[in-house]
Amino acid sequence: MASDSSAIKTYKGSCHCGKFAYEFKHTSLEAHEFRATICNCSICSKKGNVYSVLMDPSEITWKSGDLASLTEYTFNSKTCHHYFCPVDGCAIGVLMDENNPFVKNKITLNLNCVEGVDTEKLNKKIFDGKSH
């Protein structure tokens, strides 16, 4: 029997030390239709992040810590706010603010921090952040 790829699943993620843990709901990340995003900008390519779909920050339920307590890093246009754990350095996600020319007030999570997701096996698309 084939699994229903449209079924909503709850995913759990965290940084390495566990200070920041969260949950979010999404259709199956393993479904053939889902394509994770690889950004080729200077920081994402150095870190090797693999990103989820864009979502409202309110769609993330923080189990420990919160977005405001993560360390924030911006560069260039300063419209993409990269968040990482101040203890272990794990990249949690990127928030595009209201001044971002492509998408406003959305966050994307680094799927390398999500339990049970093998990012090597995911279908992927490239976002050309290097040119923006």
From TrEMBL:
<feature type="domain" description="CENP-V/GFA">
    <location>
        <begin position="11"/>
        <end position="128"/>
    </location>
</feature>
<protein>
    <recommendedName>
        <fullName>CENP-V/GFA domain-containing protein</fullName>
    </recommendedName>
</protein>
<dbReference type="InterPro" id="IPR006913">
    <property type="entry name" value="CENP-V/GFA"/>
</dbReference>
<comment type="similarity">
    <text>Belongs to the Gfa family.</text>
</comment>
<dbReference type="InterPro" id="IPR011057">
    <property type="entry name" value="Mss4-like_sf"/>
</dbReference>
<dbReference type="Pfam" id="PF04828">
    <property type="entry name" value="GFA"/>
</dbReference>
<keyword id="KW-0862">Zinc</keyword>
<dbReference type="GO" id="GO:0046872">
    <property type="term" value="F:metal ion binding"/>
</dbReference>
<dbReference type="InterPro" id="IPR052355">
    <property type="entry name" value="CENP-V-like"/>
</dbReference>
<keyword id="KW-0479">Metal-binding</keyword>
<dbReference type="GO" id="GO:0016846">
    <property type="term" value="F:carbon-sulfur lyase activity"/>
</dbReference>
